[in-house]
From TrEMBL:
Name of the featured protein: Endonuclease/exonuclease/phosphatase family protein
Disordered, as annotated region: 363-405, 436-462
Biased composition (Basic residues): 389-399
Molecular function in Gene Ontology: endonuclease activity; exonuclease activity
Keywords: Endonuclease, Exonuclease, Hydrolase, Nuclease
Stretches assigned to coiled coil: none
Amino acid sequence: MAWYTDLRDTRLFSLAERDWTSRRLLDLRARLKSPLPDGIPRKTKDASIIIGTWNLRDFDNNKFRHGPRRRESLFYIAEILSAFDICALQEVNEDLGPLKDVMRLMGPGWDFIATDVTVGASGNRERMAFVYDKNKVRFRNIAGEIVLPKHALLPDEQQFARTPFMVSFQAGWFKFSLCTVHIYFGEDGKDTDGYKRRVKEIEYIAREMAGRAEREDENFILLGDFNIKNTVDETMGALTKAGFQLPPDLFPSNLLGTKYYDQIAFRTRKDEVTFLSAGVFNFSEAVFRPDHYDHYAPVLPARHRDLDSDGTPKDRGKDKDYYSKRWLTWQMSDHLPLWVELAIDFSDEHLLHNLEPEFEKSDVPAQVEYSEEAEPVSSPPEPAEPVGRKRRNRKRKAPKVAAREKVGTIAPAPHMTLGEAWRILCWVASGKADTFRRQRKNARKAEKAKAPGKAPPTRKQT
């Protein structure tokens, strides 16, 4: 949760505005705590980790003069970010002052790591950053920006529009590397150079991270704003064909709920990470709602509105659209934060791996331990010899394993592609599915008839 002491400062908030902001924070907190799919799971100490990604639109230089963000907006952003253990941020601008203000509101237990700005027209002098809870996540002292080698340069020898940023972290037993991206958008038409560049950028970063996951035997998570149009678009295929897996359910991440721009994809070590849940958080259900228009109308920037001489809007409906579809996006964002929860406590598996089958049927005396004064030995000493009567072989009891606080699946199921769906449809329509079902049914009947101790079925006499 965010720190709320600034709300008591009368130089920053009037009594009326403190009341308004506090009510909105209560609404926001209630929605964050609501059951899935609307809310976000409660954070645990070490059983799971919640990883988020959020494109914070143009945070925060006000170059389009729709802002700057209000003080209350920073509270809302801090409240949402504190629901994650770690979150990747895109579109952080050159001035880190607003981000530092958010970090101060989140408290001293939080920290961030950011890139330098990406220069050039397509880079927009943006940064990418990770904010993380130091009580849960530890920086592993590895960070770097990913650049294209000469043989992989984009057309006209172009680099990434915005340099991907990779950082290594650890939470409990779980060691992982996050790589956040903000892929070039260009144009929507598939024959355009901009769209082709978008696909190429996704292809390269996915292939590069997949290769590193293989070489380093590391858990890699690729996340951020990929500018993916939909789940069956070529942009999505460029991500998944490198072997990255996605959560079984995918969520649109733009404010209108129509695009799948943001994604979180995995290449993880076998049997180490288990998937729990995923979702997207719609903050617009709690803050800057359409019915809040009258509260904010007096402070909306006049330069973007069509007003009469007395300051009232000529078209109230059009003015409300500006408030809810444009101004809101520069107060919060035009993207919704996407998140995934992973179970990361695999300490039981580590201990169970140490068990030796040969000792399950018999017991042996305890190993003799040497004191510090004894001469060093190259290997641990053997167990002591039994004394007195001959020791009976006793079966060692199976260890008791504590119940899991969080139980998930080994890996998120790959999302069905349009090609797979078409093949299944053709298989069913051709009648092969019915044939396969009959064959399987007959095989089961044959197995039952061959089962020992069972008489063959006889026809009932009438």
